[in-house]
Amino acid sequence: MTDRPSEPPSGRGLRPETTRRAVVAGGLALGAAAVIGAAVRASGPTVWPDRPVRLIVPYPAGGSVDLLTRILAEKLEARFGQPFVIENKPGAAGNIGVAALAASPADGYSVAAATVGHFAINPFIAAQAAPDPERDFAPVSLVWELPNVFAVPGRLPVETLADFVGWAKRQGRLAFGSSGVGTSTHLFPTLFAARAGLDAAHVPFRGAAQTIPAMLAGDVAFTIDNLTSYMSYIEGGQVRPLAVTGTQRWPGLPDVPTMAECGWPDFAMTSWAAFVVPMGTPPAIVGRLAAALRDIAADPAVRDRFATVGARALASTPEEVAARAAQERPIWRETVRLAGLAG
């Protein structure tokens, strides 16, 4: 008896039902692969980032948001091996930059540094078309907080906040600078001037990088602005800090009292920021970026760099960002109303 020849691998010689089963099985495998592939695409790329990431700063170069974002961008580049390219898009109290972020593709390649103003102030300003923090962009992680500083030109003949109030009343009308209508740097001085009985005119700028030269030139007499932007000028003596808005004295300025210590207990508020992405960005990407920011915030070298310029490094979950914003919105809404800016 001779051996039967082996059947060819091409499938010739298979019974029809066997062939049909093979075709069906192959189709099911292809279908499963397609479903898995779709799921992977929905959750984000397997490797992110694989190209440069745009990092929007909604304020001018040289201010606190720009400075601190650049420190984080440097660390993110080292972590991921891709450039995080800073793009300054200032204007309209930071709304222009965040609106550009909200209009970007939700693919993980556009990120922005949004401040407390974007989350809890700008939406209540009647004259502004501000992005909706609950609809237009999604939080990733808190990244820093810092007190504001009540700052005046170093040449003014005042040493304390009480000295300044007395001096300002003798001057009559004076001006204060801010980073734009509706920002905390506008609301704080407006309320202070009203409660202190000062005749103070608001001069809005695009950021501290413009406010500081105006102050040094004598065009504005004071501001209540982010400490980070002013630290080098304070250390150089061009600007004098009269108080900080935190609940405690800032470690880098131990001799400068809090607003509460100066008799102004309603001014104990800090400024903070979070990284945000367009709504709909894949959760896998949000999670990977949040994890990187958490590690960066825990780096002692980063914490020291932040402290040197007057800020505290933070990290959080996206849910914690949303919770903080929700907690502070009622306070800021009332402040907007008292400043006469609400609709």
Topology:
Blueprint: H1 16-43, E1 53-57, H2 64-80, E2 84-88, H3 95-102, E3 110-115, H4 116-121, E4 137-153, H5 161-171, E5 174-178, H6 184-196, E6 200-204, H7 208-216, E7 223-226, H8 227-236, E8 239-244, E9 270-278, H9 283-297, H10 300-308, E10 312-313, H11 318-338
Parallel strand pairs: 1-2, 1-3, 5-6
Antiparallel strand pairs: 3-9, 4-7, 4-8, 4-9, 4-10
The major beta sheet can be summarized as:
8 strands, mixed
Count of extended strands = 10
Q: CATH top level of the largest domain?
A: Alpha Beta
Overall structural domain count: 2
H/E element order:
HEHEHEHEHEHEHEHEEHHEH
Count of helical segments?
A: 11
Poorly predicted runs of 5 or more residues: 1-44
Strand content: 15-25%
The whole-number mean of residue pLDDT values reads 87
Superfamily (CATH H level) name of the largest domain: Bordetella uptake gene, domain 1
Shape: globular
Structure, described:
It contains eleven helices and ten strands. It is of the alpha/beta class. The strands form two sheets. Strands 1, 2, 3, 4, 7, 8, 9 and 10 form an eight-stranded mixed sheet that branches. It has a two-stranded parallel ribbon with strand order 5-6. 43% of the residues lie in helices and 19% in strands. The relative contact order is 0.17. The termini are far apart. It folds into two domains: 53-145 and 270-338, Bordetella uptake gene, domain 1 (D-Maltodextrin-Binding Protein, domain 2, 3-Layer(aba) Sandwich), CATH 3.40.190; 147-267, Periplasmic binding protein-like II (D-Maltodextrin-Binding Protein, domain 2, 3-Layer(aba) Sandwich), CATH 3.40.190.
